[in-house]
Protein 1
Amino acid sequence: MGAARGGTSGRLLPADAVPPVGSLLDVAPHRAAPALTARLLDSGHDRLVLGPPTDVLGTPTEMVEGEEVDLVWGEHGDVVGVAALLERRTGPGWTAVVVAPPQRVQRRDAVRVPVDLRATLARDGAGDGAPGTLDVPVADLSESGARCVVDPVALRLEQGERVRLGLPVAGLSGPLAAQVVHRRFRAGSRGVLVGLRLVDLSDGDADVLRRHVFARLRELRRRGAL
């Protein structure tokens, strides 16, 4: 992941990296909050004018002046994200001031970020709570997959096997289909690190995961953990 291509000197957000007016942007508040989206109404020097942010049901969500958010959008197959502050109300929406250069990543090279989550994992076809459903720690997460620590005695998984992964991420439609791509035994630990690739992922669920990953990256950078 790297800074977006250059534009007008002195701008954090180069002119050629600004999304077109009318684009739908993901809005990820740094506080705990559901996934939000907002329409881009106008733009200026390091400023993006947003319509009212709404949740997945289209309900307007109250924001706070000075609130820190990440704004994320798609561009030519890439994902672009910027950190911003909600400077002031502009009609029913907000003017967001960009406070850091944009970060860009190709979708095929999805960003992987360490997380502190516990998920449910089961073989494909097993219902939630069915025998063989495990509560597992998630080591890291991306828009395209995850790595979990699995007790091989409680649930032995083979490479290529299909599973269902239930992540505690607000906005997901439910457990996600995944395929085991690798298993790595860890020295001094009974748990096996299992790499999962998400399959048949809807655009909506991919967007939710992308927002969560960008927000987590921003949190870790703020804490100096990255």
Protein 2
Amino acid sequence: MVTIQEARRSLEQHFGEHPPAISGHLHIGSEWYEDADDVLPTWGSREYLVDGHVQFNRNDNLAIFIAKRTGEVRREAYILNLDKIDAMTPVDAPDA
């Protein structure tokens, strides 16, 4: 099983290879969500997540899941995964 710190590193590597199209500075939050199979990171612009400037809110349909067994990063449609996301529970993902 992949630890939260390993999942964070996988996400950072993914963003290094595939920079997200967001306004502002990329920020990976410290509260993620999980179910038996995946973790769902909180991410977006620092200006929105930390500073609260709503004009920097992401308005996309992107959910990024990280498989707990392999660390694989998957990009999926958020709206098609609403039931999965709603059933996930919060988990702390502090910077390592």
Protein 3
Amino acid sequence: VYHEFCNHSHGNMAVWWLFSLFMFHLSCMSPSCAHPGGLSKAFSYSLKSTRCTHARVKQLLRRYKEEQLDDVQFEDRNLELKTLPSLSTDFNQWLQMKDWERLSTASHDLHTFWAHLDRKRREMEEEGDRASQGMSNRRKAKLSIPESIQCIQKDLRDLMTKVNFQLKSMNSSSVSPTSPNTMTWQVGLSTSSWAKSTSLWASRLEGYIILRDLESYLSKLTRDFTLLRTRHSLPPGTPHRGR
């Protein structure tokens, strides 16, 4: 089932209600004046970065739909790329995840989105080079969509660096974070998914799917960092699940 959070409005509201109730419970367990530890501060920075990146992606998605699909209201949740991270979430399973497991998954998923964006950006740059031959530079004042995608990629690299640092801080030998300094095309996209024979319209739909799913994923990652920050703000010895 594709996008349980997005496809079932009542289920989505229930999940958010449960999440809000859980976070309220945790906040009541921790004094507001408690001095946060190093990881709590690190998660706060990651949360802020994630929110900023989410806002940029949301803005870029709207522009992409307007300029590439000629319809700023375009929406089709039936379209999917199986090589992107799943956005389906079981609330109880999500709560029970270990902290290192949550961060390791985030590191992998961020890299996957980075790689998809990189491939799409290169495709659009090639298409743009052909289309811009003989045209004036009067529109150069505004960043092109590929340039905006590259900015998003930098944001994702920054987030990966933060996540990998947090993983190291936990000293877990069970994880193997992806280094943003050695990024390659490793996500295993099938040749058919990105075949050169793909029509221009299908290629543009792929870009829409990537940005749409990235926006949804960053909303999910925001909840992850909110939970991690709250957990690591608790006084030492406070029992909770997921450590």
Protein 4
Amino acid sequence: MNVSEIVIFPDLLKLPKNDLKDICTNEGLDESGAAFELAKRIWNHANSSEKKHRMFTPYSHKFFAGKTSVSWYTCDDLENLTKYIIEKEGHNPFEGKVPYDEKHLNTTPKLRSASKIDDHSYFLRFIYKDGTRRIIGEDIEVLPTNKTATALVDEKNSFIEVRAKPSDAEKIAEVIAGYVKQQLSLHRQDFIKPFGYNIDVIADTLGGELYESKASPELWMDTFGDDENEALLDIFEALSKYFENQDIDKLQECLDNAKEILGGDLISLPFAVLVLAGMGNVGLKVEEKDLRNTALYKVFKPYLQPSGGYIRFDVEESGVQHTFSIVVGVESQSIYFRSNKTTETVIKK
């Protein structure tokens, strides 16, 4: 099957409204209404393989991208994975969708379809239960909801890219590795390690800007109490007043008092470390410029352990520059692409 044949209705909902309107225009369909109405109109019209190929192929670089989290995994060996998939499923997912029983569907991902990219890589699509939804009428009915996620497999390089939230990605990768009995060799790729766990370096590599940072203090001080906090507040207040009246004696008096309260151990630490004392999570954000150019970020960065960061960067497509943003998760070792305009080109960058 080609990519157009494994597209499902929720994939259409990922497309920007302008793309949906273009499809309607090309097919002679009514282009009025909200995005959901347009997608439903297109889906009802796509009732043959020929129509799907004509309508969906121009957008094949968008259907499995959009707003999504991406995690990467490696195995010792994925050679002949396609053969083992067909043997285990008793069905060739590259030729037709794998049938499944809705009653037996659970949170373990079930292979549904596949499409070749080249001679050693391909898309696999999985379906699984993903929570519940409530329907409120005369009574309240709770129904299970299903989710479809996409994985890109590269047999030659024993590489798996899963496009789903990190917890689901782990399950999907395990199912894929299980076809070739490689569960024990399966490892989530620590893509941040080559960058020295430094989100600034990732932003530079992308030629982008860091506009939001999440981190926690590297040093935890359980001896920092109310008196010490008051001493720091006095220092800030004294500095503010100094710029008003230039009374250096008052400033010196305040600093001496603070030094006595903080004691030898604390006073030996950088002042920025003292300011961060007792903080659990520290978030910094700017709207337009690069956060790294702000004084506050430069002061605190050496004493913070990053847990995530938001980066915006440009990608050229068809000769036009487009701006995209991602969230880098240090602990989850994943990236979340925030725009429904995200394409395969953006993910590859």
